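Here is one chain, start to finish.
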Amino acid sequence: MAAEEVSSFLGCEAKVHRGRVVFDIEVGKVKEVLKLRCVNTVWVMLGHTDNIEYPDTEEEQLVKLQDFAENMLDWDKGLEVWRNVTGFQGEMYPSELESKHPEGKEEMVSSPKVAKLSPLLFRCTCYRSGTNHMFRSTEVQKLVGGRVQEKFNWPVNCKNYDLEFTINCDVKQVYCGINLTNISLFNRTVTHFGPCTLRPPISASLVMLAKLEVGDVVLDPMCGGGTISLEGCQMGPHYHIGAELHNLAIKRSMDNYLALREKNKLPAQPAADFFQWDCLYPCLRDNSVDVIITDLPFGKRSGSKADNRVLYPRTLLSMARVVRPTTGRAVLLTQDKRSMFVCFKQVEKYWKHTKQISTNIGGLTALVFLMSRTGESPPSKSS
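Its structure:
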């Protein structure tokens, strides 16, 4: 979904890798990338190799990574992009290396009375996947980070850093980048967290899967902390309703919603509302909802899989009354795949299963089920 959002929002073609997407964009448009809703973190790529050809020993592998980080990356362009995006006002190139950046040196000489700026603080982070590495991530962080420190003379600070240099090592690939988001982007939506808060980028992906249209009424009948509705109401002219049985959860939803405008500097409060209810007895008019998007209980931290075998079909049957026949649809996330498949037979009169997509939620393999309403309508609540 992130690749699809990049294509539709930025007009760029993205290549999909495991857990990330890579794309080219004009330097002047990089700040627009921070508006993407289906991503956690944004890096500016400094360099990449498809086949690092690791030597046979640990020491040689680490030396190869150090040489790659020092000599094969486009540091000047990457740092310029990072400074433009973050607005960093400190000293990018300390005095020992001024000769490599004469423009900065001329500025300093021509303005002797200007106070000396604080130097850039950095840290190095390594992510690895694969079994062919003879080194540990911490060793890469220490040695490659040390080589970068020697190159730029930046002080190291692993907590209060300005710049984070990241090196990703797959089985054969290595790619390096500078983090443009020291704080994950999901923090822009959620201020009050609960025990099962769904990450906003995942919520935004579910909203995109629903293919919402202008004016759609969207319901999350088990909203928890409200992240699906909170993301959705910022992604287009739709009206989002979040409902939840637990009184503490619905309070978190309202608190998150009320903080949304100020936190994101929105011109107006987004079109959404939250209320407390029992989703098995929905207090909405018949055929009043266009789309349901929800994160069903996994049966892990919340409820049990035995409960789900009863809850899932009853929820879909109750929701069939409020969702418009024929055009209505649902996007349902759950890790309890067995209970979901079992319930299809019980609700097939009102719901048709159209597609399923596998995803990873906190290390658990989950499925997103796409469903559409049939032309049949259950009895009205008034009958």
